[in-house]
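User: My collaborator sent over this chain with a note saying "see what the structure looks like." That's all I know about it. Can you take a look?
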Amino acid sequence: MTDPLATALTDRLGCRLPVIQTAMGWIATPQLVAATSNAGAFGFLAGAVMKPAELGEAIARLKDLTPHGFGVNFHSFQPGAAEIVEIILANADRVKAVSFGRGPDAKMIGAFRDKGILCIPTVGAVKHAEKMVQLGCEMITVQGGEGGGHTGSVPTTVLLPQVLGAVDVPVVAAGGFADGRGLAAALAWGACGIAMGTRFMMTADSPVPPAPKAAYVKAGTGDIIVSTKVDGIPQRLILNPLLRRIEGSGRLAMWLRAIEAGLEMKRQTGMSWGQVLGTARSMTSHGEMPLSAAMMAAAAPMMIQRAVVSGDAEHGLMATGLVAGRLADLPSCADLLKTIETEARDRIAALCAKD
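Assistant: Without extra context I'll predict from the sequence alone. Here is the result:
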């Protein structure tokens, strides 16, 4: 009998279970990726927040932590992107996939494909899925509105079947998944597996410090909102004291928040005020974002780091998927994936059982 959990995802990526751990910035470290991969899923390293040298060191470390293949996430517009691509290509023996949003062109995608590296972009709209396939991508991750970080408004239950009907490559479902029931449902839709960020962030193997982890566990669905005031783009976050101040800010208060954000950016990066302003102005080139909002956007990563790296759950920002509102534990990756596999097999068996 064919194994229902053996899909195009497990075949192409060489993992045991059709589950992907997404590349959450500052969270998807070698520690978490190794724990994920060793437990049977496929982990992505958060290369998009690393400098080239840091990525090289992280890949080397990860090779020591797991015998399995893994993925790397990056942005084609990040500093040192060309060098990062070369580092990934040079490690094609273990880097089996790359993930990204929009950015890489057909030539870059072809270079990865020639090395046997699967390109799996994350998209939030049908037109973006179609575009990525046209450029040569051979698998797509579709993230519905329930997902964490920057996300669209179309829920997974609507977006996933739309994309499945529009492209002829394997599709991974993301946005709202956390358990075996969700995996069984995604497979029933026709997806080749699921991708989870928040659920893997909320594990014992995640590097997030105790205080923000406790805040994620405590948060209910009513404590999670989509804000456009952090960086001008809809972003799902836990409503904490900092976000309440940002959400309640008028024009003057927004400038005060922007100055606070600029100070945090200076503190963490060593930039001068001129460099901070220059970075912010570069984000206003299309005339769609006022300078105060651009300063917030430029500094937003620093505010997220304050929470998930430094552990300040009150004065940092905590991006999240809506699914955090129903999660109340921090299992190990091994226990999590064991439970997911058991639940998925039980649900599939129940659906297939004869009266």
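A starting point for your reply to your collaborator: The radius of gyration is 20 Å.
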